[in-house]
Amino acid sequence: MSIRVSVADPSEQETWNRYVDRSPQGTVFHRYEALECLRNHSGATLYPLVGYKGNHPVGIFPVFELNSGPFSLVFSPPYELGIPNLGPALLDMDQMKQRKQEKRHLRFFESCLEWIDEEIDPQYTYVETDWHYEDARPFAWNDFDVSPAYTYVIPLADRPDEEELIGRFSQNPRRLIRDAQDRDYSVDVGDRDDVAWITQSVIDRYEEQDRTPHLSVDFVTELYDRLPEGTVRPLVLSLDGERVTGNILTDTGDRIRHWQGGARVDMDLPANELVEWHGMLNAIERDVPIYELVGANTRRITTWKAKFSPETRTYYSAKRSTMSMEMAESLYVNLRDSSELLSRLSPATN
């Protein structure tokens, strides 16, 4: 039996979100409310694709169409919003034997691809999967250029206490965190205003480095407003009653991710080390088994993250383009053209 692909509409939001919750690859950003936020702030058209075998759902694949002049571009996730991963999320395949699982997976993916080609006919397609999406062969078998990318996770299922957790870090953060315990600082879960403040701090840091920010305050606060309470959670470190730094965490119940934040602080308090440690303690308190330090692809940044002794996980970026778009991208690389179209072609991850 073939896989039938349809587009979920807003009336099916609850059903879609149940699929997200059931899928090992489902993330905060797969939720229907989050997808609508991505649509609102990317200027893209959203297609939440659902694959069915008969009446049984086998997977979801949210994609976004962007148009620049004569070109149609498809992204999952859309670029320039700081979203680390999206892509396909599979349903009810873990209990299948390997042969049947691979067959169902491939048919679902190729049916979605057929829908995309028939309805959008893009010249360029770019997908970044979640690290739970372990088999990227369907992309490679359908003419995508597939590349591995990396992120860091810290397993916390054994629920270490504060000192046990510190003891797992390298020498430098162990010393810094222990030495800071007599300082008058606090780390607390914040509110919407703190979400906006942390986001603006990240934006300011990008601009100080002459880099283009990949998110906006309006986008992140809309996510905070629309997703279930506690899904987007600001963690704020204050010293003597004044905000110093903070992280924006996302929480799916089985994984907490440090998504945004951690702008450099010029002071003698190890503020970012402390707020990261408290983020992990927050995960332990909520009985969440994984804390993710999103992104392990930039050497300068990994040097800082690695001192918390994380484990690496692999996810995949997959790109497919027509000959004309390959020529345009090659021209961009050679000339460093900063046009709006070409700046979208290679989403960057930390």
From TrEMBL:
It comes from the Archaea. Residues 169-298 form the BioF2-like acetyltransferase domain. Keywords: Acyltransferase, Cell shape, Cell wall biogenesis/degradation, Peptidoglycan synthesis, Transferase. Gene3D superfamilies: 3.40.630.30. GO terms for molecular function: aminoacyltransferase activity. InterPro entries: Acyl_CoA_acyltransferase, BioF2-like_GNAT_dom, FEMABX, PG_Glycine_Bridge_Synth. The keyword Coiled coil does not apply. Belongs to the FemABX family. This is BioF2-like acetyltransferase domain-containing protein. It comes from Haloterrigena salina JCM 13891.
